[in-house]
Write a structure and sequence with these properties.
Elements (H helix, E strand, L loop, with lengths): L18 H6 L2 H104 L9
Length: about 140
């Protein structure tokens, strides 16, 4: 039997255990992993942690700074846009609105004065025509 197939056969003594688990728990597999693979893995992890964290920290710091800068720029542009909108639209609109309200109030006052004048003239004319000496008096 070849040595590579030793751990891959089904373990009849422990049912339900996969062949891979029984192979990785084998003494021969552990004796290969410990001296050869584990040092490579630890050196890889050390190199990765030494070389990767600083660029990652720099990257995220730059991302944070650019996000903060863009949000400040957006807030500044928004305030400037609001100010321009108020200068060009809201303030003239409010001025025109107050002028229009004043014009409407003057018109209503004039109409009420005209109606009151017409009412007084009508009552005077009515007294003249229907009075005791008027042309339409009831005899």
């Amino acid at each position: 039997m070849p040595t590579s197939d030793v751990g891959l056969k089904n373990d009849k003594t422990r049912p339900g255990v996969s062949p891979y688990l029984s192979y990785t728990n084998d003494v021969r597999f552990v004796s290969i992993i410990s001296p050869q693979i584990k040092p490579l893995y630890t050196s890889y992890q050390k190199d990765l942690s030494n070389s990767l964290w600083e660029p990652l920290n720099t990257f995220w710091a730059e991302c944070y700074e650019s996000c903060k800068f863009s949000s400040q720029r957006r807030a500044k542009l928004q305030m400037e846009s609001r100010r321009k909108f108020q200068e060009k639209i809201l303030i003239p609109c409010r001025i025109r609105q107050s002028e229009e309200l004043a014009r409407v109030n003057v018109q209503q006052t004039q109409r009420k004065a005209r109606e009151a004048h017409v009412g007084r003239r009508w009552h005077t004319l009515k007294r003249f025509l229907y009075g005791s000496k008027g042309a339409w008096a009831k005899l």
